[in-house]
Amino acid sequence: MSLPQRTTVFIVGAGPCGLAAALSLNHQGIHDIVIVDAVLAGENSSRAMVIQAATLEALNNVGCLDKVLSVGDKVETLGLHDGSSYLLSTDFSLLSPYTKFPFALRVPQTETEAGMLEKLDELGIKVWRPFKVVSLKPSQDTEERLFDVQFESGDILKAKYVIGADGAHSHCWFLNLVRSEAGIAFSDLNGDEKHDYGNLSQLALGDVSYTSPPQLDTREGVSLTFSNGNFTLFTPFPADASPDKTRSVYRIVSSVPVEDGTAPHAPSAEYLQSLMDRCGPPSLSSDPAVNLHPMRVEKVYRSSRYCTRSAVPERYFARKSNSGGAVLLIGDAVHIHSPIGGQGMSLGIRDAISLGPVLKAHIDSANGVASDTLFEEWATSRHKRAISVVALTKRTLGIITASRRVWSPLLKLGFAVLRFLCTFKFVKRMVMYRLSGLAEI
Protein backbone atom coordinates (compact mmCIF):
# COMPACT_ATOMS: atom_id res chain seq x y z
CA MET A 1 0.00 0.00 0.00
CA SER A 2 1.42 3.39 -1.00
CA LEU A 3 1.45 6.55 1.07
CA PRO A 4 -1.66 8.75 0.53
CA GLN A 5 -1.09 11.77 -1.70
CA ARG A 6 -3.26 14.17 0.26
CA THR A 7 -4.60 14.61 3.81
CA THR A 8 -6.21 17.25 5.98
CA VAL A 9 -3.91 16.67 8.97
CA PHE A 10 -0.36 15.38 8.68
CA ILE A 11 1.48 14.36 11.87
CA VAL A 12 5.26 14.04 11.82
CA GLY A 13 6.46 11.66 14.51
CA ALA A 14 4.80 8.60 16.07
CA GLY A 15 6.15 8.95 19.57
CA PRO A 16 3.72 9.43 22.47
CA CYS A 17 2.90 13.02 21.47
CA GLY A 18 2.20 12.28 17.81
CA LEU A 19 0.09 9.27 18.77
CA ALA A 20 -1.80 11.32 21.37
CA ALA A 21 -2.49 13.99 18.75
CA ALA A 22 -4.00 11.38 16.42
CA LEU A 23 -6.17 10.02 19.23
CA SER A 24 -7.38 13.50 20.14
CA LEU A 25 -8.19 14.37 16.53
CA ASN A 26 -10.11 11.12 16.06
CA HIS A 27 -12.00 11.76 19.29
CA GLN A 28 -13.06 15.11 17.82
CA GLY A 29 -14.34 13.42 14.66
CA ILE A 30 -11.35 14.25 12.45
CA HIS A 31 -10.46 11.09 10.55
CA ASP A 32 -8.52 12.39 7.54
CA ILE A 33 -5.15 11.93 9.25
CA VAL A 34 -1.78 10.68 8.06
CA ILE A 35 0.89 9.99 10.70
CA VAL A 36 4.44 8.98 9.78
CA ASP A 37 7.62 8.07 11.61
CA ALA A 38 11.20 7.83 10.37
CA VAL A 39 11.93 4.55 12.17
CA LEU A 40 10.43 1.09 11.98
CA ALA A 41 8.13 -0.15 14.72
CA GLY A 42 10.05 -1.53 17.68
CA GLU A 43 13.14 0.61 17.06
CA ASN A 44 12.39 2.74 20.09
CA SER A 45 13.13 2.07 23.74
CA SER A 46 12.05 2.96 27.25
CA ARG A 47 12.77 6.61 28.03
CA ALA A 48 10.11 8.36 30.11
CA MET A 49 8.91 6.24 33.02
CA VAL A 50 6.17 8.24 34.76
CA ILE A 51 2.82 9.67 33.67
CA GLN A 52 1.47 12.41 35.92
CA ALA A 53 -2.15 12.75 37.09
CA ALA A 54 -3.06 15.60 34.74
CA THR A 55 -1.90 13.52 31.78
CA LEU A 56 -3.87 10.50 32.99
CA GLU A 57 -6.93 12.77 32.95
CA ALA A 58 -6.15 13.80 29.37
CA LEU A 59 -5.64 10.21 28.19
CA ASN A 60 -8.88 9.22 29.86
CA ASN A 61 -10.69 11.97 27.96
CA VAL A 62 -9.69 10.42 24.61
CA GLY A 63 -10.47 6.83 25.66
CA CYS A 64 -6.90 5.55 25.84
CA LEU A 65 -6.19 5.24 29.55
CA ASP A 66 -7.33 1.67 30.26
CA LYS A 67 -4.70 0.13 28.00
CA VAL A 68 -1.90 2.07 29.70
CA LEU A 69 -3.22 1.51 33.23
CA SER A 70 -3.33 -2.24 32.67
CA VAL A 71 0.47 -2.55 32.42
CA GLY A 72 1.57 0.23 34.77
CA ASP A 73 1.93 0.47 38.54
CA LYS A 74 0.33 3.19 40.62
CA VAL A 75 2.92 5.22 42.50
CA GLU A 76 1.40 6.66 45.66
CA THR A 77 4.56 7.83 47.46
CA LEU A 78 7.80 9.49 46.48
CA GLY A 79 10.70 9.40 48.93
CA LEU A 80 13.43 12.02 49.14
CA HIS A 81 16.77 11.32 50.80
CA ASP A 82 19.76 13.44 51.71
CA GLY A 83 22.60 10.96 51.23
CA SER A 84 21.99 8.23 53.80
CA SER A 85 19.42 10.30 55.72
CA TYR A 86 15.69 10.15 55.12
CA LEU A 87 14.40 13.62 54.35
CA LEU A 88 10.69 13.39 53.56
CA SER A 89 8.04 11.58 51.54
CA THR A 90 5.12 12.84 49.54
CA ASP A 91 1.69 11.30 49.23
CA PHE A 92 -0.13 11.42 45.90
CA SER A 93 -3.41 10.54 47.65
CA LEU A 94 -3.52 14.18 48.75
CA LEU A 95 -4.58 14.93 45.15
CA SER A 96 -7.86 13.03 45.53
CA PRO A 97 -10.00 16.22 45.82
CA TYR A 98 -8.72 17.36 42.40
CA THR A 99 -8.47 14.27 40.21
CA LYS A 100 -9.86 10.79 39.62
CA PHE A 101 -6.25 9.61 39.47
CA PRO A 102 -4.50 10.57 42.74
CA PHE A 103 -1.26 8.83 41.83
CA ALA A 104 1.52 8.84 39.27
CA LEU A 105 1.61 5.91 36.86
CA ARG A 106 4.93 4.11 36.59
CA VAL A 107 5.08 2.70 33.07
CA PRO A 108 7.91 2.67 30.50
CA GLN A 109 7.40 4.83 27.44
CA THR A 110 7.45 1.78 25.17
CA GLU A 111 4.31 0.49 26.88
CA THR A 112 2.63 3.90 26.74
CA GLU A 113 3.23 3.99 23.00
CA ALA A 114 2.11 0.37 22.59
CA GLY A 115 -1.20 1.15 24.31
CA MET A 116 -1.78 4.16 22.05
CA LEU A 117 -0.87 2.19 18.92
CA GLU A 118 -3.28 -0.56 19.87
CA LYS A 119 -6.07 1.97 20.30
CA LEU A 120 -5.28 3.65 16.97
CA ASP A 121 -5.26 0.27 15.26
CA GLU A 122 -8.75 -0.40 16.64
CA LEU A 123 -9.81 2.96 15.18
CA GLY A 124 -8.33 2.11 11.77
CA ILE A 125 -5.56 4.73 11.94
CA LYS A 126 -2.25 3.51 10.52
CA VAL A 127 1.25 4.74 11.28
CA TRP A 128 3.29 4.88 8.06
CA ARG A 129 6.91 3.70 8.53
CA PRO A 130 9.66 4.39 7.72
CA PHE A 131 8.97 7.73 6.05
CA LYS A 132 11.42 10.55 6.69
CA VAL A 133 10.34 14.12 5.92
CA VAL A 134 13.01 16.20 4.17
CA SER A 135 11.15 19.39 3.28
CA LEU A 136 7.94 21.30 3.85
CA LYS A 137 7.03 23.78 1.10
CA PRO A 138 3.88 25.82 0.32
CA SER A 139 2.02 24.11 -2.51
CA GLN A 140 1.97 26.03 -5.80
CA ASP A 141 -0.66 24.11 -7.73
CA THR A 142 -3.81 24.83 -5.73
CA GLU A 143 -5.84 27.75 -4.50
CA GLU A 144 -6.02 26.18 -1.05
CA ARG A 145 -3.38 26.91 1.57
CA LEU A 146 -1.55 23.59 1.54
CA PHE A 147 1.92 22.18 2.09
CA ASP A 148 3.84 19.91 -0.22
CA VAL A 149 5.55 17.50 2.16
CA GLN A 150 8.49 15.76 0.51
CA PHE A 151 9.99 12.53 1.84
CA GLU A 152 13.41 10.99 1.52
CA SER A 153 11.75 8.24 -0.55
CA GLY A 154 10.69 10.82 -3.17
CA ASP A 155 7.00 10.66 -2.19
CA ILE A 156 5.11 13.96 -1.96
CA LEU A 157 2.01 14.50 0.17
CA LYS A 158 -0.24 17.55 0.26
CA ALA A 159 -1.50 18.60 3.71
CA LYS A 160 -3.55 21.47 5.08
CA TYR A 161 -2.31 21.19 8.67
CA VAL A 162 1.08 19.87 9.77
CA ILE A 163 1.66 18.83 13.38
CA GLY A 164 5.33 18.63 14.30
CA ALA A 165 5.74 15.91 16.91
CA ASP A 166 9.19 14.90 15.70
CA GLY A 167 10.90 15.52 19.03
CA ALA A 168 14.14 17.28 19.79
CA HIS A 169 16.44 15.11 17.71
CA SER A 170 15.00 14.77 14.22
CA HIS A 171 18.29 16.18 12.94
CA CYS A 172 20.05 17.62 16.00
CA TRP A 173 18.94 19.35 19.17
CA PHE A 174 18.29 22.85 17.79
CA LEU A 175 17.56 21.78 14.19
CA ASN A 176 14.23 20.01 14.51
CA LEU A 177 13.04 19.63 10.92
CA VAL A 178 9.42 20.81 11.12
CA ARG A 179 10.29 23.67 13.46
CA SER A 180 13.20 24.68 11.22
CA GLU A 181 11.13 24.47 8.03
CA ALA A 182 8.52 26.72 9.68
CA GLY A 183 11.22 29.26 10.58
CA ILE A 184 10.57 29.10 14.33
CA ALA A 185 13.48 30.01 16.60
CA PHE A 186 14.29 27.74 19.57
CA SER A 187 16.37 28.82 22.55
CA ASP A 188 16.61 29.16 26.31
CA LEU A 189 14.66 32.28 27.21
CA ASN A 190 17.18 33.02 29.98
CA GLY A 191 20.14 32.67 27.64
CA ASP A 192 21.32 29.61 29.56
CA GLU A 193 22.11 27.30 26.62
CA LYS A 194 25.62 26.76 27.97
CA HIS A 195 24.76 27.02 31.66
CA ASP A 196 26.94 24.91 33.94
CA TYR A 197 24.84 22.74 36.24
CA GLY A 198 27.91 21.10 37.78
CA ASN A 199 27.46 17.37 38.29
CA LEU A 200 23.91 17.66 36.97
CA SER A 201 25.09 18.88 33.55
CA GLN A 202 24.97 15.23 32.50
CA LEU A 203 22.75 12.37 33.61
CA ALA A 204 23.24 8.65 32.98
CA LEU A 205 20.21 6.36 32.73
CA GLY A 206 20.01 2.59 32.91
CA ASP A 207 17.41 -0.17 33.03
CA VAL A 208 19.22 -2.78 35.09
CA SER A 209 19.05 -5.90 37.24
CA TYR A 210 21.15 -6.55 40.35
CA THR A 211 23.14 -9.41 41.81
CA SER A 212 20.78 -9.33 44.82
CA PRO A 213 17.53 -7.49 45.64
CA PRO A 214 18.10 -3.87 46.72
CA GLN A 215 17.46 -3.18 50.40
CA LEU A 216 15.16 -0.18 50.00
CA ASP A 217 11.96 1.07 51.55
CA THR A 218 9.31 -0.82 49.60
CA ARG A 219 6.72 1.80 50.49
CA GLU A 220 8.38 4.28 48.13
CA GLY A 221 7.29 4.02 44.53
CA VAL A 222 10.15 6.29 43.49
CA SER A 223 13.24 7.02 45.58
CA LEU A 224 15.25 10.22 45.02
CA THR A 225 18.59 10.95 46.66
CA PHE A 226 20.66 14.09 46.46
CA SER A 227 23.86 14.93 48.25
CA ASN A 228 26.84 17.19 47.63
CA GLY A 229 25.52 18.34 44.26
CA ASN A 230 24.67 14.83 43.06
CA PHE A 231 21.31 13.27 42.22
CA THR A 232 20.08 9.68 41.82
CA LEU A 233 16.69 8.14 41.12
CA PHE A 234 15.65 4.53 41.69
CA THR A 235 12.36 2.87 40.80
CA PRO A 236 11.34 -0.72 39.91
CA PHE A 237 9.80 -1.63 36.57
CA PRO A 238 6.18 -2.78 36.64
CA ALA A 239 6.13 -6.58 36.46
CA ASP A 240 3.90 -6.59 33.37
CA ALA A 241 6.17 -4.12 31.55
CA SER A 242 9.57 -5.45 32.53
CA PRO A 243 12.15 -6.17 29.81
CA ASP A 244 12.93 -9.42 31.68
CA LYS A 245 10.10 -11.47 33.16
CA THR A 246 12.54 -13.78 34.99
CA ARG A 247 13.92 -11.18 37.41
CA SER A 248 13.33 -7.73 38.89
CA VAL A 249 14.43 -4.83 36.70
CA TYR A 250 14.95 -1.26 37.89
CA ARG A 251 15.30 2.18 36.32
CA ILE A 252 18.24 4.11 37.74
CA VAL A 253 19.26 7.66 36.90
CA SER A 254 22.38 9.37 38.21
CA SER A 255 24.18 12.65 37.83
CA VAL A 256 27.66 12.37 36.31
CA PRO A 257 30.52 13.90 38.34
CA VAL A 258 32.28 16.67 36.42
CA GLU A 259 35.62 14.90 36.78
CA ASP A 260 34.29 12.02 34.65
CA GLY A 261 34.20 14.18 31.55
CA THR A 262 31.72 13.09 28.88
CA ALA A 263 29.69 10.08 29.97
CA PRO A 264 29.66 7.00 27.70
CA HIS A 265 26.97 6.99 25.02
CA ALA A 266 25.65 3.67 26.39
CA PRO A 267 26.96 3.34 29.97
CA SER A 268 28.05 -0.16 30.98
CA ALA A 269 27.10 -2.03 34.14
CA GLU A 270 30.48 -1.15 35.63
CA TYR A 271 30.10 2.56 34.89
CA LEU A 272 26.54 2.71 36.23
CA GLN A 273 27.63 0.94 39.40
CA SER A 274 30.50 3.39 39.85
CA LEU A 275 27.95 6.21 39.73
CA MET A 276 25.78 4.51 42.35
CA ASP A 277 28.87 4.02 44.57
CA ARG A 278 29.82 7.70 44.30
CA CYS A 279 26.47 9.48 43.99
CA GLY A 280 23.75 7.13 45.17
CA PRO A 281 22.33 5.99 48.49
CA PRO A 282 24.37 3.49 50.59
CA SER A 283 21.75 0.81 49.91
CA LEU A 284 22.80 0.71 46.24
CA SER A 285 26.54 0.64 46.91
CA SER A 286 28.85 -2.26 46.08
CA ASP A 287 31.25 -1.25 48.87
CA PRO A 288 30.89 -3.51 51.95
CA ALA A 289 32.31 -0.70 54.09
CA VAL A 290 29.27 1.40 53.13
CA ASN A 291 26.52 -1.17 52.52
CA LEU A 292 25.89 -4.12 54.85
CA HIS A 293 24.35 -5.88 51.86
CA PRO A 294 26.72 -4.96 49.02
CA MET A 295 25.28 -5.41 45.56
CA ARG A 296 26.22 -4.70 41.99
CA VAL A 297 24.51 -3.91 38.71
CA GLU A 298 24.60 -7.28 36.98
CA LYS A 299 22.89 -6.68 33.65
CA VAL A 300 22.02 -3.60 31.61
CA TYR A 301 18.98 -3.88 29.33
CA ARG A 302 19.23 -0.32 28.08
CA SER A 303 21.35 2.69 28.97
CA SER A 304 21.90 6.20 27.69
CA ARG A 305 23.18 9.62 28.68
CA TYR A 306 21.44 12.97 28.77
CA CYS A 307 22.92 16.46 28.60
CA THR A 308 20.97 18.93 30.73
CA ARG A 309 19.65 21.86 28.73
CA SER A 310 16.51 23.95 28.43
CA ALA A 311 14.77 25.66 25.53
CA VAL A 312 11.35 26.70 24.25
CA PRO A 313 10.42 28.18 20.85
CA GLU A 314 9.27 31.71 20.24
CA ARG A 315 5.89 30.29 19.20
CA TYR A 316 4.03 27.00 18.76
CA PHE A 317 2.16 27.97 15.57
CA ALA A 318 3.19 29.44 12.22
CA ARG A 319 2.25 29.75 8.60
CA LYS A 320 5.27 29.59 6.34
CA SER A 321 3.65 31.98 3.84
CA ASN A 322 0.23 33.25 2.86
CA SER A 323 -0.08 30.30 0.49
CA GLY A 324 1.08 27.64 2.98
CA GLY A 325 -0.84 25.58 5.49
CA ALA A 326 -0.63 25.78 9.26
CA VAL A 327 2.26 24.34 11.29
CA LEU A 328 1.60 23.42 14.93
CA LEU A 329 4.28 22.09 17.29
CA ILE A 330 3.94 19.81 20.30
CA GLY A 331 6.09 17.80 22.72
CA ASP A 332 9.88 17.86 22.72
CA ALA A 333 9.79 19.90 19.53
CA VAL A 334 8.75 22.83 21.72
CA HIS A 335 10.08 22.20 25.22
CA ILE A 336 13.39 20.75 26.32
CA HIS A 337 14.35 20.66 29.98
CA SER A 338 15.85 18.47 32.67
CA PRO A 339 14.06 15.11 33.06
CA ILE A 340 14.22 15.53 36.85
CA GLY A 341 10.60 15.64 37.98
CA GLY A 342 9.27 13.49 35.13
CA GLN A 343 7.48 16.35 33.39
CA GLY A 344 8.51 16.14 29.71
CA MET A 345 6.41 13.39 28.16
CA SER A 346 3.41 14.19 30.35
CA LEU A 347 3.45 17.85 29.25
CA GLY A 348 3.88 16.83 25.61
CA ILE A 349 0.90 14.48 25.69
CA ARG A 350 -1.21 17.26 27.17
CA ASP A 351 -0.02 19.57 24.37
CA ALA A 352 -1.22 17.02 21.85
CA ILE A 353 -4.59 16.24 23.37
CA SER A 354 -5.40 19.92 23.94
CA LEU A 355 -4.83 20.58 20.23
CA GLY A 356 -7.65 18.29 19.04
CA PRO A 357 -10.62 20.53 19.96
CA VAL A 358 -8.81 23.62 18.66
CA LEU A 359 -8.06 22.06 15.29
CA LYS A 360 -11.63 20.76 15.06
CA ALA A 361 -12.99 24.26 15.70
CA HIS A 362 -10.69 25.73 13.05
CA ILE A 363 -11.75 23.16 10.45
CA ASP A 364 -15.44 23.67 11.21
CA SER A 365 -15.27 27.47 11.12
CA ALA A 366 -16.00 28.71 7.59
CA ASN A 367 -14.80 25.40 6.11
CA GLY A 368 -11.40 25.84 7.64
CA VAL A 369 -10.78 29.35 6.35
CA ALA A 370 -11.04 30.67 9.88
CA SER A 371 -9.07 33.32 11.64
CA ASP A 372 -5.89 31.94 13.11
CA THR A 373 -6.84 33.46 16.47
CA LEU A 374 -7.84 29.97 17.62
CA PHE A 375 -4.31 28.71 17.02
CA GLU A 376 -2.68 31.80 18.48
CA GLU A 377 -4.66 31.48 21.70
CA TRP A 378 -3.82 27.77 21.99
CA ALA A 379 -0.16 28.43 21.25
CA THR A 380 0.08 31.21 23.82
CA SER A 381 -1.51 29.01 26.49
CA ARG A 382 0.81 26.05 25.82
CA HIS A 383 3.83 28.35 25.64
CA LYS A 384 3.08 29.68 29.12
CA ARG A 385 2.81 26.13 30.47
CA ALA A 386 6.12 25.15 28.92
CA ILE A 387 7.86 28.18 30.43
CA SER A 388 6.39 27.29 33.82
CA VAL A 389 7.64 23.69 33.65
CA VAL A 390 11.10 24.77 32.47
CA ALA A 391 11.28 27.20 35.40
CA LEU A 392 10.25 24.42 37.80
CA THR A 393 13.00 22.09 36.57
CA LYS A 394 15.58 24.88 36.74
CA ARG A 395 14.65 25.66 40.33
CA THR A 396 14.99 21.97 41.20
CA LEU A 397 18.42 21.84 39.56
CA GLY A 398 19.41 24.95 41.47
CA ILE A 399 18.42 23.44 44.81
CA ILE A 400 20.37 20.24 44.15
CA THR A 401 23.51 21.94 42.86
CA ALA A 402 23.43 24.39 45.77
CA SER A 403 23.90 21.48 48.17
CA ARG A 404 27.51 21.26 46.99
CA ARG A 405 28.24 24.90 47.76
CA VAL A 406 26.31 25.56 50.95
CA TRP A 407 28.13 25.38 54.29
CA SER A 408 27.24 21.99 55.87
CA PRO A 409 25.62 23.26 59.12
CA LEU A 410 23.54 25.73 57.12
CA LEU A 411 22.48 22.98 54.72
CA LYS A 412 21.43 20.73 57.61
CA LEU A 413 19.39 23.61 59.00
CA GLY A 414 17.71 24.05 55.62
CA PHE A 415 16.82 20.37 55.47
CA ALA A 416 15.43 20.54 59.01
CA VAL A 417 13.20 23.44 58.00
CA LEU A 418 12.06 21.47 54.93
CA ARG A 419 11.21 18.44 57.09
CA PHE A 420 9.20 20.67 59.41
CA LEU A 421 7.29 22.37 56.59
CA CYS A 422 6.40 18.99 55.08
CA THR A 423 4.72 17.91 58.29
CA PHE A 424 1.88 20.19 57.18
CA LYS A 425 -0.56 18.50 54.85
CA PHE A 426 -1.26 21.66 52.85
CA VAL A 427 2.46 22.03 52.01
CA LYS A 428 2.67 18.43 50.80
CA ARG A 429 -0.53 18.89 48.82
CA MET A 430 0.84 22.05 47.18
CA VAL A 431 4.03 20.24 46.14
CA MET A 432 2.13 17.28 44.71
CA TYR A 433 -0.38 19.53 42.92
CA ARG A 434 2.46 21.29 41.16
CA LEU A 435 4.32 18.08 40.33
CA SER A 436 1.19 16.33 39.04
CA GLY A 437 0.61 18.88 36.28
CA LEU A 438 -2.86 19.68 37.60
CA ALA A 439 -1.72 23.25 38.21
CA GLU A 440 -1.01 23.56 34.47
CA ILE A 441 -4.37 22.39 33.11
TrEMBL record:
Keyword field contains tRNA processing: no
Alphabetical keyword list: FAD, Flavoprotein, Oxidoreductase
Cofactor(s) needed: FAD
One Pfam family, short name: FAD_binding_3
Organism taxonomic ancestry: Eukaryota, Fungi, Dikarya, Basidiomycota, Agaricomycotina
Name this protein carries in UniProt: FAD-binding-3 domain-containing protein
GO MF entries: FAD binding; oxidoreductase activity, acting on paired donors, with incorporation or reduction of molecular oxygen, NAD(P)H as one donor, and incorporation of one atom of oxygen
PANTHER family xref list: BINDING MONOOXYGENASE, PUTATIVE (JCVI)-RELATED, TRK SYSTEM POTASSIUM UPTAKE PROTEIN
SUPFAM superfamilies: FAD/NAD(P)-binding domain (SSF51905)
